[in-house]
Amino acid sequence: MSLAETSTPQHPARRKLSKTGLREKIMHAAAELFAAEGYASVSMRKIGQRIGYTPMSIYLHFKDKDDLLDCVCERAFADLYRRHERVDAESGDASERLKGGMRTFIDFALQNPSYYRATFTRSGEVMPRRDLIRQRTVALKREQVAAFLGASASMDEIEAATQVVIAAENGVATLLTANPKLEPKKMIEAVIATVVRGLRG
Q: Which residue among 5, 37, 75, 174 has the highest number of C-beta atoms inside a 10 angstrom radius?
């Protein structure tokens, strides 16, 4: 199930939601507020006001604000993981897998800018749910890089190359989500081509 991020109205008409539906609504609103205002500036009360519910309604679904952010980040990385799995399943060519992995990361950020920004707003913090799925997602990225470099590449070379790929795709994603008027396609393809050439060298 993809995020399919949509904007949460500031003062929506309150309606009865299923437990799952309300949990989703809370996470979407939290992602938007964390991304727009920063984690420290957002309270559970502000999130409740955003969706027309009391803070107590949020505490029925999430232990506290840290737990809520952890769940938002887990959801984002779960989507990224599924997207990378699809890339691996659809292409047997190592070069196309690497390029496809980079495109799918940037596409995720462009399609879900609030989740993307919220997910990396406290990247240095320990978050159990997020960290588990993030490690699995990075492992898929590392496998794509290793396949591209070939059997002769050392573990150190694979790890360094993986970090280069992650830095490059995050850089493009950050720039494009912060500047929606920029033309994304040319920039994405130029950066991918540059990284691929560099790794081949």
A: 75
Q: What's domain 19-62's architecture?
A: Orthogonal Bundle (1.10)
Contact 6, 49 (CB under 8 A): no
Residue type, 96: E
What is the Cα–Cα distance from 95 to 197, expressed in whole angstroms? Answer: 11
Confidence of residue 1 (pLDDT cuts 50, 70, 90): very low
User: Angle at Cα 107 formed by Cα 70 and Cα 38, nearest 5°?
Assistant: 40
Any idea which architecture 68-200 has in CATH?
A: Orthogonal Bundle (1.10)
What's the one-letter identity of residue 110? Answer: L
